[in-house]
Amino acid sequence: MNTIFNQIKYPYPDNFIKVKDYKIAFIDEGNSENVLIFIHGLGSYLKAWERNVPELKKHYRCIALDLPGYGKSSKQIHSGKVSFYIEIISDFIKALGLKNVTLVGHSMGGQIATAFALDYPKQISNLILAAPAGFELFSDEEIKLLKKIVSPEIIFKTSDHQIRLNYKLNFYKIPAEADSMIADRILIKNDDEFINHCTIVSNSLFGLLKAPVFNRLKEITIPSLILYGLQDSLIPNRLIHNTTTKKIAEAGASQIKNSELIFFDECGHFLQYEKPNQFNKALLTFLKNI
After folding, report:
1. Contact (CB, 8 A) for 253 and 245
2. What is the architecture of the domain spanning 5-289?
3. Is 0.90 surpassed by the pTM of this model?
4. 218 burial level (CB within 10 Å; 0-12, 13-18, 19+)
């Protein structure tokens, strides 16, 4: 049973709602008719936004959720397809009766948010993408190579030392606050449903690789803010592609008509956590000016 996952401490009270066949965990802070929905990245959870919600909830209603298979949400194994996740987000929005929604997605969450804007443009008002996946394209051969490297079994057997190294890869300079996320990641290895989580992470990676959004970005018309850290060591995938974060970001942003692109210097992939003040200010300025 999902017992150790439930021992994770969130900075705000847990809420739960059933969406399709999944119990979805979320936090819901702030009082405003304008809503920010935060979607975390691969292998992450809603604590990814713990350095943003305290400030942003002063201005907006802030809802951060654990996607199915992550954090405190239920762990039934699923396909990990982007289409699955956008249906979950759509039903989540409907279940809570939300209006005036801005989607805020990090990494995998950014690709999910982008796909959502393409398929359900009338359900959201704005799009904010933090180091989004999906701008970088992968061939079938490259996907096969990655499948060998990121299997459920390999994720399941990741040592505590490697977990710490993996977290450091997300940052230019890792903040002390990230220690709690590392501790959570090590703790959940003992949960009975941890293998389900590992399978979902692996499935989700290949779901992302097989559903890139780059070729459809011209269809997005809602105001969009795109942010990247210039020292992002995860985008592009440097095992495979000889390019830069800046080129990937600019190529994607140039396709979205009503978009603004911002780079943070001395900042890695987990930019909203590494540079929370800059991120929060950029988000608030963007939303104020549209």
Report:
1. no
2. 3-Layer(aba) Sandwich (3.40)
3. yes
4. exposed
Domain boundaries, the chain: 5-289
Whole-number Å distance between alpha carbons of 116 and 85 = 9
Give pLDDT tens digits along the chain (290 positions).
Answer: 678 999 999 999 999 999 999 999 999 999 999 999 999 999 999 999 999 999 999 999 999 999 999 999 999 999 999 999 999 999 999 999 999 999 999 999 999 999 999 999 999 999 999 999 999 999 888 888 888 788 999 999 999 999 999 999 999 999 999 999 999 999 999 999 999 999 999 999 999 999 999 999 999 999 999 999 999 999 998 888 889 999 999 999 999 999 999 999 999 999 999 999 999 999 999 999 98
Cα separation of 19 and 78, whole Å? 14
Calpha distance 275→265 (Å, rounded)? 10
45 CB neighbour count, 10 Å cutoff: 24
Phi, then psi, of 132 in degrees rounded to 5: -65, 140
